[in-house]
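Page 47, continued from p. 46.
Same chain as before, 147 aa.
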Amino acid sequence: MQRVTEASVSVDGAVVGAIGRGFLLLVGASDADTMETADKMTDKICRLRIFADENGKTNLSLADVGGELLVVSQFTLYADCRKGNRPGFTRAGAPDWANQIYEHVVERCRSYAARVEHGIFGADMEVRLVNDGPFTLVLDSEELGIR
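Result:
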């Protein structure tokens, strides 16, 4: 996830989603993920207090600042680069299941922000962003003990 001042995603040269201040979420799913995993991860992300308060401390959540969300599917988050020079993607979820998880995350995000935009699952997308900070976090359900 990246805290952004603006972000957009385009497919075939046409913008399909754009936001102002908020989070760009790059979402990958594995076959081991469940809807419960997706709920817990989405809740964790959307409740993170990583916006500055009046004292400049990262103390405010997405809701506190009226932030927006842009959700983009990205199976390449599961790249395995340990062997050779060509990444393997066997840990990424099967497309049908990963799409269900992705769509579920998009819908869950709607309970946290008035504006939720998204890319198109499986499409060749171009993502543009202005990273605020930069502030980028990697959240893994396995590492967080959410699976």
